[in-house]
Amino acid sequence: MDYSQYEIYDFDSVSAFNLSTGYKERSYQMHWHSYGEILYVGPGDTNIYKVNQNTYELLPGDFVLIWPMEMHSIVDADRTESLVIQFSNAFINSLFDLRRIMHLYRNVHIICIMAHPELAEKLRVIAFKMKDIFLSEQPDRELRCCMLLMEFMLTLDEYRDELAPELEGQEVLGYTDDVMRRMIMVTDYIKNNLTADDLSQAAMAEMAGISKDYFSRIFKNVTGMNYSKWLNMIRLEKATELLSQNDMTLTEVAMLSGFQSIPSFNRVFRDEKGMAPGEYRSLFIGGKGK
């Protein structure tokens, strides 16, 4: 594998919202970042995008949803009239309903105009309203665009039943706000306490005040993955953040991310990122000057 293709980008030039268009280059290398992206596919006979390990050949009018921390690239596409909408993970996490939607749709990456014409058209109208407002240079454009971003996410959620196949078998029956708040409380606790003595599924179910079996079922439906895989993903998110700090040893990074040993840290990291933690750090540090 050619590790030089991977780059990491920070959300350092915008605050809660950003939008861009008019790119002449047809491709963009594999990369990831802590903010989310919505890509609107512009006209052209060839539109090939990749998210994580999946490659998609798309049609004009399709949408690509890239959630925070996901690897993605544009393999070959006409980008002159496409839209790139970027939103802060902190903004999404600041509102309960947006967090719930992001959790539920984490495995949905493509909205196809052929499969979901009505939804795609509604999302297109919202996206181009964002474009008009953002490019207008109005002093309150970011606030107005964030309001439209919320409308975009709520519109997506209104089509949950229609999107059931893309949800990979997750139950489409909604949970009460109380249950969702308990689950988000638990996930927030985990993110802020990765070195806690007991982050077992049983302990987290007890914290949420529900049975272990019910917790397991809800967790899979909400996040799209089982508890142990999700916990490893959260630990990896913390590890990738810490690896950007060159003054920490790999052992320190592993321990502060909640991994119990260097071998387990290396194994999980390589399985997910395709490279060892030390190689990843070298790429990050080496790419800062670009």
Structure description:
Helices cover 46% and strands 16% of the residues. The protein is an alpha+beta fold. It folds into two domains: 3-167, Jelly Rolls (Sandwich), CATH 2.60.120.10; 177-287, Homeodomain-like (Arc Repressor Mutant, subunit A), CATH 1.10.10. It has a five-stranded mixed β-sheet. Helix 8 (227-243) crosses helix 9 (250-256). It starts with 6 loop residues before the first strand and ends with a helix.
Estimate the global geometry from the Cα principal axes: globular
Major beta sheet summary: 5 strands, mixed
Helix content: 40-55%
Q: What name does CATH use for the topology of the largest domain?
A: Jelly Rolls
- What is the average per-residue confidence, as pLDDT, rounded to a whole number? 84
Structural class: alpha+beta
CATH superfamily of the largest domain: Jelly Rolls
Number of helices: 11
Rg calc: 20 Å
Strand order of the largest sheet: 1-3-8-5-6
At the first level of CATH, the class of the largest domain is Mainly Beta
> What is the number of strand segments?
10
Percent of residues in beta strands = 15-25%
Helix/strand order: EEEEEEEEEHHEHHHHHHHHH
Q: Please mark out the parts with pLDDT under 50 across 5 or more consecutive residues, or reply none.
A: 1-14, 169-173
Please name the CATH architecture of the largest domain.
Answer: Sandwich
Task: Write a brief structural summary.
The chain is α+β, with helices and mostly antiparallel strands. It has helices at 89-93, 96-104, 117-134, 141-158, 177-192, 201-208, 212-223, 227-243, 250-256, 262-273, 277-287, and strands spanning 7-9, 17-21, 28-33, 36-40, 47-51, 54-57, 63-66, 72-77, 83-87, 110-111.
